[in-house]
Specification:
With 93 residues, the protein is α+β, with helices and mostly antiparallel strands. The protein is 27% helix and 42% strand. A five-stranded mixed sheet has the order 4-3-2-1-5.
Length: 93
Amino acid sequence: MVVIRLTRGGSHKRPFYHIVAMESRFKRDGRFIERLGFYNPIENASGIDLRVISDRIEHWVSKGAKVSNAVSRLVKMNAKNNANKPKQAAEQK
């Protein structure tokens, strides 16, 4: 069974997470099928970094993948942030 979950990266006390699709029997940081985004919980000047490829997540869910609680929370947070973000005007020459 395919699951969408977080794999941990980064160094000691500086976590960094990748959102991946992987088989449920594989280890947390083991082999994965596809990388679907990332999450950096350490705040920097621009805030918390979060990138999600939502159309690929929808693809895997349509194929029967289960989404972990943490990833579903991050996807909702990303959707909320993108809804509040104003669209940038096209650059003028």
